[in-house]
Amino acid sequence: MKTNLIRRKLSDGFLQFLTLFSSLLAVGVLTALFYYIFANGLSLMNTDLLRNDYWSVSKIVAFDETVNQPGLYPRPQDLDESVAWSEKWGIGFVDYLSHEKKQLVLIETVAADSPLQSAFDTSAGAAQGKPVALSAGLQVEKIDFSQAAGTADFTGMLASATAAEVAQTLDQQAVKLTSIFIKTPGGGIRGSIITTAYLILVSLLIALPIGIASAVYLSEMAKKNRINMLIRTGIETLTGVPSIVYGLMGVSVLFPITALMGAKTTNILLGALTMAIILLPTIIRSTEEALLVVPKGLRDASLSLGASQTQTIFKITLPCAMPGILSGILLSIGRVVGESAALIYTMGTFINDKPGLLKQGTSLAVHIWSVMSGEQPNFELACAISIMILIFVLILNIAVKFLTRRLQKSWH
Amino acid sequence: MKKLTIFLLAALVMLAGCSTPSGSDTPGDATATPSASAATIHVYTRDATSGTREAFEKAGDFAEQLTSSAIEVSSNGDMATKVGADANGIGYVSLSTDFAANGVKPLNFEGVEPSEATVLDGSYGMQRPFMFTTRAAGDYESTEKEELIAAFLDFMQNSTEGMLVVEKAGGVVDKTKGTAWAELAAKHPIVNQDNSSISIATSGSTSVEKTLKAALEAFQPMAGNFQFTMNQTGSGDGYKRVLGSEKDGANRADIGFASRAFKSGDEDTSAAMASGQYCIDAVVTIVNQANTSVSDLTQQQVHDIFTGTTTSWEEVK
Question: What is the DSSP pairing of strand A139-146 with strand A152-155?
């Protein structure tokens, strides 16, 4: 009798331990993941990352002939020691290691009376001849100059020079600056954030009305016959289809539709259309489930007061099912934010700083794919983008929880 | 009480489990110091997506046969640092790496010393060409775009300025053959107008990405601030999307790139407006500076070391 009791206690204890261990393991793995992402990415998280373009803008500037000669510009008193100052041209440079582990030479400051203040754009186009401010943070790719003997030479990052070497070369050799090739800092994710927003908006705009309407039909109006059961099973099956299959379908079937609207390459609209199709089963399922839990009494009451079936659905049942529908929307947005395979096919892998519906672009997830697939994978940047995605999803979660509570209060 | 004990036990197990993954984040560090078995070779390799790895495996003829004990590093710089810190390490980097600064020694391949000169005359074997091809003449959205692409390729392939940019981004070029862009630009009046409405699309090899991006960004301000989109997905798509089966599809491009010669027969570039080679990528086998047992490797030796057949420096001598 007693051994039986001990045995039972042992097996109970073991099972309890198993459940506890499993949940702790899950929590531990998640914590480790978060720790890894935050430890690697947090150093890069700043407003520059969010605001900057991914691609640098290159400019070649030349200078006003009348002032283009060396002078004497004393080093400003308050200038940091790390700045290499060129006395004859009145400009300071600093060394900088970019988050892509590239050694850069940046402009730190230009003296107010320096000839470099007369810089103007030489590129053909609307901005040609317009003044360009040599502001702090611009990368000095190449400085072309003439030497006293009339020969030409150059310095800058393309000559593998450091900030100190650039300043020194300018002071010792340059008698006239031919041109400076500058680049704005790049590497930002602004374009991908906008693309992700486009993608969420357009795909929901298409998928929501269709999804909710078909869920209403299936659960409220359709008779329980074989065809309708078949449709329902079909939709359930679609939930499990890998998204890459939808991506293939998107690029082969839906591309001609966007081509009619003037698209020449894969584009964000195509990605959004494909995402809309991927989302449909999710939205239909969650709406249907939300409709099922609306008490039958509410419908009966509405009908007995003389409302038609349509009125009952749109004025009573649907509003009551709102919390469920909202959580369906949240799930959908989560899928759009996390999707990458289908989008690589339908939107390309070009990180676009000026996304438009009919242009290529990358969502944040594809941006991660892009920075990780190159010759030099950039773990830090990928983690920083992951933090962005996590924060975004967290905010969405809280917002939907809050909305759901508000709506539930008003309808029950 | 019992519950508490179980909980504590589980927490302990968890902690033990937790500390392992965070510790294994830096696999190279553990082997950074020379180990007891001083003569054992430590093979370092790049991640599977690396173009350098692809080139090296092809040169050593051991694709898919890499030894399972190889330590994976994440970038070219990482490789140089790790081999520089491991007296028994062997790895490979691109020729543009600063060997001395990282404490590594470049090895000869089949008796030929890796240098710009030996790469350019073809005697150094661990190299691959970066090739380009364009759409057929007249097959562009506008003649402006066609002229601009011709100008860009001329800049990248023949101008001293373009060669300098490509070289700085890691490609090997013969700068003695370069012409000043000011001279070449005379043939391309298109660069003197506002081209900001034109967008050049490129496709093909991912390995060319760095050199291509550098060249495009340098050429932008010289040619009326044109736009570009780079969709680099692999050498196979280089020909396909400009002249092959996908040339009018959703992924059409203007210039296609390959980090190998275009296959004669399958990839016939004779219809292209322009095609050719714009630089060479060379891979160099490196060992630690302190390693005196080896200075030259044959293809067979490279094959044996990286497949794990040869495991000690004694056998290489």
Answer: antiparallel
Span A125-138, pLDDT tens digits: 888 888 888 988 89
Closest residue by Cα to residue B79 from B112, B113, B53? B53
Beta pairing partners, A230: none
pLDDT on residue B34? 44
pLDDT at B38: 53
A350: nearest CB among B3, B164, B231:
B231
- Could you give the CA distance from residue B235 to residue B120 in angstroms, rounded to a whole number? 22
Give all strands (DSSP E) within B289-317, no chain letters.
Answer: 296-297
Which 3 state secondary structure label does DSSP give B69?
coil
pLDDT value at residue B33: 42
Sign of CA dihedral A166, A170, A173, A176: positive
DSSP assignment string, A317-374: IHHHTHHHHHHHHHHHHHHHHH--HHHHHHH-S---SS--TTS----HHHHHHHHHHS
- Has residue B18 got a pLDDT over 60? no
Q: Is the dihedral of CA A187, A189, A195, A200 positive or negative?
A: positive
Q: What is the pLDDT of residue B30?
A: 40
- Mean pLDDT, residues B227-231 taken together: 88
Tokens of A278: 């991927």
Say which of B13, B76, B224 has its CB closest to residue A123.
B224
pLDDT grade, residue A37 (50/70/90)? very high
Q: Name chain A contacts of B225, Cβ cutoff 8 Å.
A: 123-125, 127
Q: Look up residue A68 and give its two tokens.
A: 């283009």
A154 → chain B, closest CA residue? B161
Show Cβ contacts of residue B112 under 8 Å, excluding neighbours closer than 6 positions. B118, B123, B124, B125
Helices (H), A42-102: 47-51
Phi, psi of B87 (to 5 degrees): -60, -25
HSE value, Cβ hemisphere, 13 Å, CA-based, for B38: 4
Q: Are A255 and B250 a contacting pair at CB < 8 A? A: yes
Collect all residues of chain A within an 8 Å Cβ-Cβ radius of residue B229: 265, 348, 350, 352, 360
State the complex-level ipTM: 0.72
The domains found in chain A, sorted by start residue, are 56-183 (no CATH), 190-411 (1.10.3720.10)
Q: Which secondary-structure segment (H or E) carries B34? A: none
pLDDT tens string A233-288: 998 898 889 999 999 999 999 999 998 998 888 899 999 999 999 999 999 999 99
Which helix H or strand E contains A24, and what residues bound it? helix A2-41
Q: Residue A153: CB partners within 8 Å, gap ≥ 6?
A: A144, A145, A146, A147, A169, A173
Which pLDDT value is given to residue B3?
60
How far lies A34's CA from each of A332, A334, A335, in Å? 23, 18, 20
The set of residues, in sequence order, having a beta carbon less than 8 Å from that of A304 and lying 6+ positions away, is none
* Cα-based distances in Å from A31 to A23, A379, B230: 12, 18, 37
- Other CB atoms closer than 10 Å to residue A1's CB: what's the count? 4
- Quickly count: other Cβ atoms within 10 Å of residue A309's Cβ: 13
Instruction: With H, G, I as helix, E, B as strand and everything else as coil, classify residue B31.
Output: helix
